[in-house]
Prior knowledge:
By secondary structure, the chain is of the alpha+beta class.
Amino acid sequence: MKNKELRSNSKNTEKCASYTVEDHVNYKQNLTSLKKEFVEKYSADIKYDKSAEDFEIVKTLGVGSFGTVLLVRDKVTLDFHAMKALEKSAVMTRNFLQQLTVEKKIMESMSFSFVMTLDFCCKDNLYVYLILPHQAGGDLLGLMKKMGEFSEPVAQFYAAQVVLALEYLHHLNVVHRDVKPENIFINASGYIKLGDYGFCKIIKKRTFTLCGTPEYIAPEVILSKGYTFSVDWWSLGVLIFEMIAGYPPFYSNDRVSLYDKIVAGEYKAPYHMTSMCKSIVKSLLAVNPSKRIGAQRNGVYDIKVHDWFGDCSWEDLLHQRLTPPYTPACEEVEDASNFPKCPDVKLKKSAVFRALEYPAEMSKQEYMRDRILTQRWNLIRVISDYNVNRTVDVNIEKLLSDQLAAYERVLEDACGSGLAFQVERNFPPSEEKWSILQAVFFSSTVLTTIGYGNIVPVTFWGRLFCIAYALVGIPLTLTVIADLGRVFATVVSVVAKQLPTMPRFCTRVSDVNPAGQRSLYAFWAVGFLFLYLSAGALLFKMWEDDWSFYDGFYFCFITMTTIGFGDLVPKRPKYMLLCTLYILIGLALTSTIIELVRRQYARSWQQLRALSGPLADTLRRLGDAGRGVDVSALQNDLRKVLTVVTMPRLSGGRDSLAEKRQLEFEVALEAVIRNMTHPLPKQKPPIVQIVIYESSV
């Protein structure tokens, strides 16, 4: 019945003698068998025994937004591959993890002549590596730049292969969504491979995601109406137009104007384009997806029997028995001359702590996962054996209790080791314990002597490096924090002097005790520190799902005081760097308070050292005996008392002897004041005394 409908609805069947309905039906049966193979591979858990160290980097082929494509050689087989290195940080930042998993699963499950497949997959601390077959001919965009406008037979040769690739993908329920010349690669024999499945998706009905390259996006994607496989046929129409015209049908420097043209379907075909080519381009660029060729009732059959493909032998093309119009000039297998020249990019190296601890972490995770699976199957086996044998002598409650207790102990050990569980195969850990951010956070806790203890090195070399790292880094960090404290203390003092006049009560206190005004600086710094702690508590309350304001304040306080109990530590990895910055600023504020108090003691000490005479010696002994004595306040009080005493007294008649004694007394008091207020030349202070003073502060 379907064959009759297909034959009656196709207007071009008789015109295209090279492809019949029977050919199409037989080919669909082959695609069905290929789909069955794809489903089996997609549901399987494919393991690879290769690592990034097994490949030698030869040359950089290109640089993308997510990573770098490198030409590599297998150190064992000496085969050449294209290695796509994707940075884990970029993948996580852009929430591309799920899409990357889909891309990897689809590529390793496909098996077709005109699609890119996956040879190997591996990862290390920083990258995920997709090992692909090396296509020595470069991409179709490079060929278009080299040859200029294609003739229609040449464009037909490449477009027909894209049709077969899309037909295969759509039969697997996979929509590509990024068909463009940059993603079409040419092998050494001149045939193409459709690659880059970063936007591909397995769909059953409709999807609404806005993605793709702007010049190739279909109108229904822009309008967010939901779309299916029709978007790939739209991209095919843009591709055919660009190969023949040398430019895309829709182009504008303004993104909004470009989308307006696409939605309206406004384009102008070049004069040298034949009527048959204009016909297929018009059918592929139909704004209404229900009227677009390839998306109608007959599907891809309408494209294959179109007049423009009338001379195409689909059978010979499928088995690559045709002579390609262009064969890449490849001197050797590893030739990369057909790719655009770009500077060689060196991949990043792992942080030392992560490089040392990550392998041990992975082996421990694997060990814990094996223990869990073993104990889990033991529990299942006990239950199944009891249901089959129905042994009366066995106490099933005790048996299950023992097995569950053993299973719970294994789970407890695994959770304590940082293994996160998902109800999927192999219980994969959702987060790495020694990620880059975790390693940086751990390094900051070592340098600031906090040491939460949530993650610690377990290997010998990791612990040895931690000791050396701490011995060198802690003095440098404390020096930086002390310098920041001095800077902040100076800022506090300058800002305090620019503030408005203090209240009368504070003014009275500062007049009576000048040191009280300096003490207010320290209190202001303490108040600002508490505000900083409160702000940090609010931030951590937002970042951590299960933290209250009190939990955040408690964590900030034990962090600022470098206690670091470790009972409460942030668990969100992406906020670790912000947490590290918060710790450093908070420690600098704590150092600010210490610096302000130190300056007050230092000023009192300088004033005490500046005094001379018997009274000054007494005051110094008093200052040494009782810490915290304000010498400047005591000196001001003495000056007031002595001034009052030396004021001339009113008296009636005095004899000459009394006046002489009064004058001598006033001269003696003036000498005492002069002896206190005019210090002797500065002498080098005793070193031991200075050291004792600084240590006491």
